[in-house]
Structures are given as C-alpha cells and as structure tokens.
Amino acid sequence: MEVQTDSLGIMKWVNKLKPTCIKIIDLIFFKGFTFKDGAAELNIPEGTLKTRHRKCVNELRNVMGE
Question: Does residue 4 surpass a pLDDT of 50?
C-alpha cells in the first residue's frame, strides 16, 4: 500500500477551503511549522495564527461532513 504525500487524501478537502485556510493548514499540518514559526512566516501574531488555525480546522470538519 502506497502512502499518499497529502496525508491520506485530506488535501482534496483542504483545497475546498478559503485560500487563507489552505495556506495555514499547509504550513502547520503538511509542512510541520510550529505556531511561532508559522506566525513569523505569515507575518502575523502567534495568537492570531492559532485562532485562524482553529477556525480553519472547524471549517475543514464542516466541509468533510458534507
């Protein structure tokens, strides 16, 4: 069985999200950035990134549940 580089097909669901969410989930989940490093990469405060990440994950759950 071949392991997908997009973590078992989840990327197809992520691609249905807003561009901001795609970027955040890509950095944190797929690229393994810490919140501190991700915030520096996006040039936003760490707390803002955490809040947006939580909202994006909730949005992803909703999209997957459709």
Answer: no
Tokens 């901001």 correspond to 20
DSSP H helices in the chain: 11-14, 19-25, 35-42, 46-65
Please give the residue range of the domain that contains residue 52: 11-65
Amino acid identity for residue 39 in this structure: A
Residues 30/56, Cβ–Cβ less than 8 Å: no
CATH of the domain at 47: 1.10.10.10
**SS3 for 20?**
helix
pTM: 0.82
